[in-house]
Amino acid sequence: MLHYFINSSIIWLACLLVYEGLFRKVSFHQYNRLYLLVGLLGGILIPLANFHIVKTASNHTLLDPITKIYEIKKTAIVNQVTDLSTSPQTAQVDESQIFWWMYFLGVFVGLLFIAKEVFALCILYKQGRKTKESGCLIVETGKMHTVYSFSNIIFVSSKSDYTQTQWEFLLMHEKEHYRQLHLIDNLFLILLRIVFWFHPLVYIFFNKLRIVHEYQADRAAATDTAHYGLFLLEQNLLQSAPSLTHSFNYSPIKTRIAMLLKTKSTQKQLVRYLSVFPLFILFFLCCTQTSFSGGINKNEKIITFKGNKIQFEDFKLIPYEYQDIMRQQKKMFLNVVMPDSIPIQDRTTGLTTMHKVETAAAPAFLNGKPIFGKEEDYLLNDYDSRYTDPVLISSSKNLPTHIFMQLKNEFDKLDDGEYYLRGNNMVIDDKGKMAFYENVGLDNYTPTGDRKPENAQELMKRIEERMVSILNDEVRFKAAHKEGKAVPTRFHFGNFQIRVKNHQARFLEGVGC
Q1: How far apart are CA 232 and CA 354, in angstroms?
Q2: 152: burial class by Cβ within 10 Å (0-12, 13-18, 19+)?
Q3: Measured between alpha carbons, how far is 347 from 228 in angstroms, rounded to an integer?
Q4: How far apart are CA 284 and CA 291, in angstroms?
Q5: Which pLDDT band holds residue 150 (cuts at 50, 70, 90)?
Q6: How many CB atoms lie within 10 A of CB 316?
Q7: What is the rounded distance in angstroms from the CA atom of residue 73 to the CA atom of residue 67?
Q8: pLDDT tier at 193 (50, 70, 90 boundaries)?
Q9: What is the DSSP string of 493-513?
């Protein structure tokens, strides 16, 4: 959520700075209005966009058989994660709940203010004297206030307070608001102010767009610029109008008069609006939820992925030869701690030597919450009955099978050969959604001397793109639970082989493991 607000703020601030620098002083009010509206919508929608850049399988990612088997069979454990999974969790105040209570309180207060204005307008409408003129409904309230309009309903203290010329100014001004559909903009802005009541940039957008509305209405009404400007100054002393309406004396009056007297902008100045296109391309590149299935830079301990903050810790890698020993220790002891070095026997010489245990980074926290897991790789002890695994919501028994069935037609199009589904470091959040993954895709293994599949590159790229889409938008789980509470968990994807022969793909679960 914080990531979304940061991206929204970046977009809105950049749009406002560009507006102030390039567009504010030109008289193309319709374009300025469109720009401000698009900027507002861009700040809301662009951070929600999700683009996935998938690296095409290339020769350097294809492993020879010995390396492939080693990669498949090696597993990892980390004593830090074991401590997290077995240590009692102290009760803490949920800060997110406090945040949401404060947010909805602000929304409620904003709705109350709007309800108050609606009620006041209804009272004035009901009690006022109504007449029709030039397609507008005139409501004479008898109260001391400036002229303001809501759609084609114009609220005025009394028509007799104005000369014929002044009344024509007022009528043309308010009719232009109605003709330009400024009410729609206004309602959208008010809704946005309620939803983003805490965000100062939304209020700036509100003021900028409202003044553009007045520029448009002034231009239509000012048949006599001198008298119209003087009339504006006179009306500035009257009581202001509700925010739901468009007020004739909307400030700043000096700015409105200056815009009336300003020489019309030339057509050449329209060129500056072309700067909007590279600006929004930059927004899409920098402020969207972009994920890379080809790998994550884990040199930093905390990364942002799909709006989630993933914290990595150093995991100890266990060679295949030492797995049986670790399994025996797990059965004998409640808390198993992986040593820093382990004995490895050389099968050729028979000599046993000590080898330092290597480490690799893997996800340990999701948005500050510890990540659990029962899979062998990350060692949540088997005896712990307080933990339940996540369950895929699908007719398929596991995620790789589900992906294979969804992409069966694409796999059938591949040339004959051996292919491997891969997926590392998957994390499922406490809502059952895929929160993180890396290196998701498909590898091809072709023995030396065999003909390599000719169409593998292009098809594998499309398959990888579809896999990413499935993980992000289609896959759902029943969340893992610990002590009855939903928790984030690591998900063991496994390694699975697909064999294609005569354009018929077969899923060989667990081959080579």
Answers
A1: 89
A2: middle
A3: 98
A4: 13
A5: very high
A6: 18
A7: 10
A8: very high
A9: ---EEEEEETTEEEEETTTT-
